[in-house]
TrEMBL record, chain A:
Keywords of this entry: Signal
Solute-binding protein family 3/N-terminal domain span: 33-265
Keyword Lipid metabolism: no
Protein's name in the database: L-cystine transport system substrate-binding protein
SUPFAM superfamilies, per the entry: Periplasmic binding protein-like II (SSF53850)
Taxonomy of the source species: Bacteria, Bacillati, Bacillota, Bacilli, Bacillales
A Pfam family it matches: SBP_bac_3
UniProt-listed Gene3D superfamilies: Periplasmic binding protein-like II (3.40.190.10)
UniProtKB/TrEMBL annotation, chain B:
Name under which the protein is recorded: L-cystine transport system permease protein
Record keywords: Amino-acid transport, Cell membrane, Membrane, Transmembrane, Transmembrane helix, Transport
Organism annotation: Bhargavaea ginsengi
Principal subcellular localisation of the protein: membrane
Family: Belongs to the binding-protein-dependent transport system permease family.
Taxonomic lineage of the native organism: Bacteria, Bacillati, Bacillota, Bacilli, Bacillales
Gene Ontology molecular function: transmembrane transporter activity
Amino acid sequence: MNKKWGFITLAGLLFLGACSDGEASTDEDGVRTLTVAVPPTSKPLSWEENGKLTGYEPDILRLVDEKLEDYEFDLVGVADSAAEIGLDTGKYDMIAQGLFKSEERAEKYLLPDENNGASLMRIYKRNDSDDIENMKDLVGKKIVPTTPTGGVFNFIMDWNENNPDHEIEFQTSDAGLSYADRMREVESGKYDALILPSNLGQNEIIESQDMQIVTTEPVEVFPTYFMIYKNEENEALRDDISEALAELKEEGKLSELSLKYYGEDVFQFTE
Amino acid sequence: MFKFDVLAEDFIGILMVVPKTLLLAILILFLSTLLGGVIALIQQYRIPVVAQIVKVFTSFLRGTPAVVLLYLMYYALPQIAHLLLKIVGIEFNPHDLNPVVVVIVTFSLTMSAFQSEIIRGAFMSVSEGQIEAAHSLGYNFLQTLSRVIMPQALMEALPDFLNSYMVIIKALSLAFLITVVDIFAQAKIMGAMSFRYLEAFVAAALIYWLISAILTALINRYELRLRKAY
């Protein structure tokens, strides 16, 4: 019983601590300043360079900021789970972390109608493995172990549940070995394939290390969204952002940024 | 917010890998004690050159975190095995080396440095007078070792060996870095299945504690029996 009360007290203290932090402020001109959390070390999605946040998400946020006259975005670098917890408590008004829509998230936060990017699940293989083109081809192949806490684990588990005839065998492991080493293990023949979202900067690694690794067409596409703190006031903000994103898509600006940071237009897969 | 049915489910799920973890740990304890014994003997008799090499070797092992060695071994051991087997004429694909072997070799090596100190200390605790008395009664070297030194040294070393065993069991949680599933790794997998990590980690903590409590009780009784003989 004591343990339970300890938890409740701790949770309460954390909650109070979070509440006392900055809420959105409005200055005399009616311009509302919003705190937006982006990842600080996830190149090319968003990273900090010379004290400035740059990358795909910050660039889009700046473009959206330009379109919205009533709002001012204040970008802060916060890593994944901390950002989502901060959004839960209202510490941040919005987070842009390349997150995809889930039932739980759609219920907890406000999501714009328009996605602002996409996470493309791809298979990385040796350039002579012509027999691997999609998930079905992975049956009986050696797959690089995946961490049980990651999205790839859930993706393969879902695949196996929905495709019992093409069940993929795979091992789990703790996160620790870098993607570069994992791709090297595919290159050397230890494994046949690596399943990974393609927005983690792998192309840069393959190019700079001159690896004999090629990728397949996306085996799954997860559109990614901004997540906005849920309250009545922010509903208008969500609609404004949806509109701004739709315009930016129309103008081809988002595709431009996607090309700049990922070397390909991810929006061709989400239309 | 804390679900006890999930905890029970995780507890049973984790119990499944307990035998494997304990077996792996006992194997590592055995190998590291063997190697530690050899190291202790070399240092005791100050065998020239070898003693110096062993000194550097143990100081390296004692000063390097197990996780660093595990990474090094993960890359190096398959190549070493490949080279060694090639010399004796066996073709071996380095990719086929089982990660369990990497774990056993790595932890046996790290623990051997500590085991050698325990063994050395235990042997030193047997007083010179006892050995002299044995010699005066006409015992030869092996008889002195097996009938006088070993029984007393073992009594001294037993609690430390149990300690080492627990250290190994806990250190094995690092093995999941290279896909070997132990108690804690199973907890992570169970947590990922149910999306409830707190329950899984509590279950893992309870199991670790249970193992240590049972082992301590068993060893205590065994030690008492040994001591009674004197």
